[in-house]
Amino acid sequence: MLANGAKLSYKTNDQATEYTDLEGLKTIPDMGNEPEKVENTCLTDTTKQYEFGIGDYGDLEFSFKYENKSTTSSYRILRNFADNKTVVPFKLIYPDGTAFTFKAQCSVKLGGGKVNEVIEFTSKLALQSNIEVADPE
Question: Residue 94's domain is classified under what CATH number?
């Protein structure tokens, strides 16, 4: 499956019923919980014993096409959330309909550029909830 058609959207608060798509999405991160391996060996064991602890989704970095011509540009919306340290409900939808919903704070970093290269910005999301996964219907 190609990543083409993936969408990242947000709600302004938990009471809002509809998500709003963020325009210009260019890259999405790996999505998966990587639990920490915790050693739990007792004195009677002959080999080390392990179990999985809490998980870590790592850095959720999304890159976007830079555009700042209107108040509804993704750059302004995400920068406003970052400036105010707002916890935002997000939804990432893959082209097949698989959906990841979560709450996060974001940071925004405007990329540099050079001759014949586009300017992008990156939004890094810091999880503030579990990630709920919904399979396609």
Answer: 4.10.410
Q: Is residue 94 part of a domain?
A: yes
Where helices occur in the chain by DSSP H, the ranges are: 74-83
Does pLDDT of 72 surpass 90? yes
pLDDT in tens, 79-90: 999 999 999 999
Q: How far apart are CA 59 and CA 50, in angstroms?
A: 25
Q: Which two tokens stand for residue 49?
A: 């014993």
Indicate the pLDDT class of residue 122, thresholds 50, 70 and 90.
Answer: very high
> Could you give the number of structural domains in the chain?
1
Cα–Cα distance for residue pair 38/49, rounded to 1 Å: 9
Q: Specify the pTM.
A: 0.89
1 in any annotated domain? no
Instruction: Decide if 29 is inside a domain.
Output: yes
